[in-house]
């Protein structure tokens, strides 16, 4: 992943500073530079995940897996497995969505798929390593545990209150179209045209929303200074934790990118829990993610998803402030 980001950075450097002749450090060039890297990175990840999920869905006995998860849904085991899968996959909030669609396509229960969608952007192995060096093992372990717990509880809650009916119609139809009890004996080569067609259909639906979402995130990245956030989530503000989550939503930063901001906030006296709540909001509740989710969920489910996760992040922030 680091190699890919490095290559994309070189491409963005060439386009912005050499080809377009913009000056390094200007607000517009900073936003455009960020847009080129983020849009290319997310688009490549989405394409890769979409095709990968097509192949996985084609080979795995998804009906048996779905039946197993349905039987153990009450115990929360499926939600825990999905959250732990999210913790070990290096996806941001936007690139997790194709895998979420793949789970819906395989008729995995909504709550279990949401557990993955919640945890995946919050926990990243590279971010964990940096987090450990910066804040120590106790804070890191509690953060990882909190991210997994949020995924498990959030998925179970949204399933319990009947949010499955608020998936977008095309996602629900996608699931119905893949019900098959016959063993498929075709080779991968013969399956590829079907996998390719389904991947193209999914990408056509998602790419415009990625473009718009990353565009908004890039504008904020280039034009809103870090000092803007420090002013409102200071130690003296009793509403700093919920405010930190609300203010971070328009941003689009991955877990690694937000860590320098987290360190900067803590160094300037912002309580650790408040800073972590800001970090969680930026990587788990971004505006680009909301725009992308609009294509796969109806507004009732998006509101419930953001509200549940936002409340969990606020409680996590207060919890961290209480113990550290």
TrEMBL record:
GO terms for cellular component: plasma membrane. It is a multi-pass membrane protein. PANTHER family: PERMEASE, PERMEASE RV2963-RELATED. It holds the Pfam family ArsP_1. It comes from the Bacteria. Belongs to the UPF0718 family. Coiled coil: none annotated. This is Permease. Keywords: Cell membrane, Membrane, Transmembrane, Transmembrane helix. The keyword Transmembrane helix applies. It is found in: Cell membrane. InterPro entries: DUF318 (IPR005524), UPF0718_permease (IPR053166). The chain crosses the membrane at residues 6-22, 34-60, 80-101, 113-135, 141-158, 206-224, 239-262, 269-288, 300-323.
């Amino acid at each position: 992943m680091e190699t890919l980001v490095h290559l994309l950075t070189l491409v963005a450097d060439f386009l912005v500073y050499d080809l377009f002749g913009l000056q390094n450090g200007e607000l517009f060039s900073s936003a455009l530079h960020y847009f080129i890297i983020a849009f290319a990175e997310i688009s490549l990840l989405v394409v890769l995940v979409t095709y990968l999920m097509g192949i996985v869905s084609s080979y795995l006995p998804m009906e048996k897996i779905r039946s197993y998860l349905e039987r153990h849904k009450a115990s929360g085991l499926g939600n825990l497995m999905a959250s732990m899968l999210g913790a070990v996959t290096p996806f941001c909030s936007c690139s997790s969505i194709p895998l979420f669609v793949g789970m819906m396509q395989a008729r995995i229960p909504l709550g279990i798929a949401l557990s993955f969608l919640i945890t995946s952007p919050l926990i990243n192995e590279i971010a964990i390593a940096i987090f450990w060096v910066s804040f120590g093992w106790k804070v890191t372990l509690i953060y990882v545990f909190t991210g997994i717990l949020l995924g498990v509880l959030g998925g179970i809650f949204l399933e319990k209150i009947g949010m499955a009916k608020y998936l977008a119609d095309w996602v629900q139809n996608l699931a119905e179209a893949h019900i098959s009890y016959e063993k498929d004996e075709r080779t991968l080569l013969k399956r590829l045209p079907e996998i390719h067609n389904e991947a193209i259909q999914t990408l056509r639906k998602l790419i415009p929303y990625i473009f718009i979402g990353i565009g908004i995130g890039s504008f904020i990245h280039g034009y809103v200074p870090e000092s803007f956030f420090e002013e409102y989530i200071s130690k003296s503000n009793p509403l700093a934790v919920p405010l930190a989550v609300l203010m971070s939503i328009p941003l689009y930063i991955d877990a690694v990118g937000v860590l320098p901001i987290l360190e900067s906030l803590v160094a300037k006296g912002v309580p650790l829990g408040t800073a972590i709540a800001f970090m969680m909001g930026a990587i788990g509740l971004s505006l680009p993610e909301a725009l992308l989710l609009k294509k796969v969920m109806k507004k009732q489910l998006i509101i419930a998803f953001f509200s549940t996760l936002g409340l969990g992040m606020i409680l996590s922030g207060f919890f961290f402030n209480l113990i550290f």
